[in-house]
From TrEMBL:
It comes from the Eukaryota. This is Fibronectin type-III domain-containing protein. It comes from Helobdella robusta (Californian leech). Residues 47-147 form the Fibronectin type-III domain. Keywords: Disulfide bond, Glycoprotein, Immunoglobulin domain, Repeat, Signal. InterPro entries: FN3_dom, FN3_sf, Ig-like_fold. The keyword 4Fe-4S does not apply. SMART domains: FN3.
Length: 147
């Protein structure tokens, strides 16, 4: 006969006397750590800020930006990506071209663009761990200056 203090196992795994029996435990090791990652490579740079694109002449645009808020290291260079914009192929692969600038440069001119065409432009910063996150896109129509 069981004593009044000895629980008896029930089919749901709950024990009498409102106690629970836990079985089949496996050892684990908890290692405290912290990761600070988002949408990119761990420790990559945040995107450069305030990307602006202005018409330079009929086949060139001036691209300017500010350094990223969180470079996560020393910026090595910037890469300005650009391609022709076509609404019908927006969700398809782009044929991106890019120019690279030094870390101290916050502007560049994209030359030899097709006149009377729309371009889409993005930028990223690179640090010792590689390329950072791309900025939002800016679209610009390249053509004759009016006025």
């Amino acid at each position: 006969m069981e004593s009044a203090n000895t629980p008896t196992e029930l089919s749901a795994g709950v024990l009498e006397d409102d106690r629970l029996k836990i079985t089949d435990l496996y050892p684990i090791i908890l290692v405290p750590m912290s990761l600070n990652a988002h949408k990119g490579t761990l420790n990559s740079s945040s995107p450069p800020k305030k990307l602006k694109v202005n018409l330079h002449n009929e086949t060139s645009v001036l691209v300017t930006w500010e350094p990223p808020e969180k470079p996560n290291g020393i910026i090595k260079n910037y890469k300005v990506y650009y391609d022709l914009w076509n609404n019908s192929t927006f969700h398809k692969s782009f044929n991106w071209k890019f120019v690279s600038t030094s870390a101290s440069t916050h502007s560049t001119v994209l030359h030899h663009l097709l006149a009377n065409s729309t371009y889409i432009i993005k930028i990223l910063a690179s640090n010792s761990l590689g390329d950072g996150l791309l900025s939002d896109s800016v679209k610009i129509f390249v053509g004759s200056k009016t006025g």
